[in-house]
Amino acid sequence: MTRPLRYSINVTLDGCCDHRVMIPDEELHRRAAEGIARADALVFGRVTYEMMESAWRPSATGAWPDWMEDWMVRFARTIDAAKKYVVSSTLDRVDWNAELVRGDLAKAVEQLKRESGKGLFVGGVKLPLALAELG
Hints:
The protein has 5 helices and 5 strands. It has helices at about 25-35, 45-55, 70-80, 105-115, 125-135, and strands at about 5, 40-45, 85, 100, 120. About 40% of the residues lie in helices and about 15% in strands. Strands 1-5-2-3-4 form a 5-stranded parallel β-sheet, sandwiched between helices.
């Protein structure tokens, strides 16, 4: 049995899926944290990984910005703790509890799915489209 690969993305009514221009709220982040908690790891492409890292990685001191609401900190802690796989042919290295995935995308994702666990959570735009094309 393979672990499932689940996909989720936030999209505005006009089709925008850029998290940097959306208005976040507590419900959106609660639902996202619940989705992440249902997975053993996150699978991101480079763009999504870099966007999420810049928004949700704690500072070197481990402190969260004063402007963050409690619900934002809960989400930040959830995504910060999650194991991450980053699909990229341009990055030389990743950190933030992440591992770089290179080479044949289909083989790499099939291998991740064969590992035991409750599932993988994929986000972004280009990577999910590529995965859908691979079936």
